[in-house]
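subagent[fold] <- orchestrator: predict structure for attached chain, return tokens only, no commentary.
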Amino acid sequence: MTINMGPQHPATHGVLRIVLELDGEVIVRSTPHLGHLHRGIEKLAESKTYHQAIPLTDRLDYTNAMGNNLAYVLAVEKLLGIQVPKRARYIRVMMAELQRIAAHLIWLGTHALDIGAMTPLLYTFREREDVLRIFEEVAGGRLTPTYLRIGGVSKDFPEGIGEKVKAFVQTFPDHIKEYETLLTKNIIWLKRTKGVGIISKEDAISFGVTGPTLRGFGVKYDVRKAFPYSSYEDFDFDIPIGSVGDVYDRYVVRLREMEWSNSIVEQALERLPRGPVLANDPRITLPPKDDVLMDIASLIRQFKIVSEGFRPPAGEVYASVEASKGELGFYLVSDGSNHPFRFRIRTPSFANLSALSKMIEGRLIADVISVIGSIDIVLGEVDR
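subagent[fold] -> orchestrator:
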């Protein structure tokens, strides 16, 4: 029998259609079909200035907007050779790790709901709301805050936000224990996750799998450690890995990741240096008010650069970060104009999804739901 799962099925986490060929309830072959979303973000960005493209990145994996911003601005800064102030780098780390926590929380709640557990969703959204309130106060937005800028961040922390972040990081570990009480030794959870969705480390690597999904297979690869960026080398954290590579291991890895992200936020808050939050570079910012007076022609020229977009030198760059779902990279080609000539994105959801067929063949239909949830995909960065 051949059946369609999706693109309207809620457990496909977006408009994903999977054609399943079955022998009874056992999956003989599966074929994921993309193309129902048609966002076209990469081509849209090629018609925008480098600044104007920032809000488009929020909407890739909309559960990881801060991380998307970070990967993109790192690529542009690499193209321009801009040095970002240390305070801005620390703020970026804090926002990226809080975003990772928020993304893992929405993953845990919906993954548990897919399998049949409703209560964890209510718990995880409670803590996610705390993170979004911090984002709202810092950036003015919640889901797609567009907070990062080329050269730093849009504005410094508002007064009193440090206390709110501190309150969150102090209470969050107890909430993780609550999630574990509900799920970790739950007999139904164990039956639905243990021994499900296993492939070899070699297969996972060959499919281009990254992030918690890859680390669940026991591969200790994390961009924050392998290629440190934005001062991650200043912080102490470990890379949790699994041993079997099943759905359960990927669940445990993400729980431990949230604990380490919480620790990184706490370290960054304690060590947060003073100073500017945006690079003083005439290609991206206007001069400060107390700077030396400029002649009218120079001032008009600089206003034009900021309003119409700077023109970086011709060349190509690639920069990546450890997003909540894996390695997120931006490949930019500049032809010397004020907008990218080529704008391509290496999204983790797309690469991780390629391993789905291998992970579910020979399993039951019910296991498809468990495996998709454990990969943690968002179709906004798959069909981009």
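orchestrator: received. Logging for downstream: The chain has one domain: 38-381. The chain has 15 helices and eight strands.
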